[in-house]
Amino acid sequence: MEERARKLFAGPIAFLKSAPGLQFLPDATVPEIAFAGRSNVGKSSLLNALTNRKALARTSNTPGRTQELNFFDVGEPLQFRLVDMPGYGFAEAPKDLVRKWRYLVNDFLRGRAMLKRTLVLVDSRHGLKDVDREIMEMLDKAAASYHLVLTKADKIKPTVLSATLEATKAEAARHPAAHPALFATSSETGAGIAELRTAILEAALT
Ligand SMILES: Nc1nc2c(ncn2[C@@H]2O[C@H](COP(=O)(O)OP(=O)(O)OP(=O)(O)O)[C@@H](O)[C@H]2O)c(=O)[nH]1
Ligand SMILES: [Mg+2]
């Protein structure tokens, strides 16, 4: 499975479309994997690291970079889609814009027929925050399966990282829709990326 995942992510991957609202979604014909989490946590960077491309998804230092649901087709023939999404909890953006993003993301995550798994990204320097717990509870209620993924692992010491990983794992165990497998990743160093590729492929095939 690992080798198959590696090949797939090294092969053809193409931007399909940007959906600013639910009426613009592509037809749900293939498995989808979504990237969720707080603004600036590294969703778009992780998508680029997984696909080994520098700027497939647009990233930025400024929170609020991704403003729509962005769909990426993986494989030729098409195997599954990756969905980059706007972040949660971006305080500086206008209130109704933040609300609009939240509804868009939540409605998508709750109601998408072909959504096989959501990756809920958590900054490894901060661990789980209330806004992350809100996403987790929403997904639990919708019985929508998700993986917690720690990001920016290069920014902290390995000992601190292990502690955060254990604490996050313990909390994930209390959430019915949280998958027991957790990932610590860095889009900078590539740590954890190969493992996550395999998990994504496995989820897409279920
Ligand atoms: N050191 C380090 N920096 C990272 C990593 N991942 C992301 N970053 C940086 O964090 C910032 C935000 O990354 P993005 O990928 O744009 O974050 P996002 O979650 O897509 O943000 P929004 O689209 O605004 O919700 C950028 O400056 C990235 O370079 C990582 O693994 N290590
Ligand atoms: Mg983004």
What's a quick, concise take on this entry?
This protein has 206 residues and is an alpha/beta fold. It is built from six helices and seven strands; from the N terminus they run αββαββαβαβαβα. A seven-stranded mixed sheet has the order 1-3-4-2-5-6-7, with helices on both faces.
What is the percentage of strand-forming residues? 15-25%
Identify every distinct bound molecule in the structure, by name, code or SMILES.
Answer: guanosine-5'-triphosphate, magnesium ion
CATH class assignment: Alpha Beta
CATH architecture field: 3-Layer(aba) Sandwich
Give the topology string: H per helix, E per strand. HEEHEEHEHEHEH
Number of strand elements? 7
Task: Specify Rg, calculated over alpha carbons.
Answer: 16 Å
Biggest sheet, in brief?
7 strands, mixed
Shape: globular
Mean of all residue-level pLDDT scores: 94
CATH topology grouping: Rossmann fold
Q: How many structural domains does the protein architecture include?
A: 1
Protein structure class: alpha/beta
User: How many DSSP helices?
Assistant: 6
In terms of per-residue confidence, which ranges show pLDDT below 50 for 5 or more consecutive residues?
Answer: none
Give the terminus-to-terminus CA distance.
13 Å
Helix content: 25-40%
The side-by-side strand order for the widest beta sheet comes to: 1-3-4-2-5-6-7
Fourth CATH level, the homologous superfamily = P-loop containing nucleotide triphosphate hydrolases
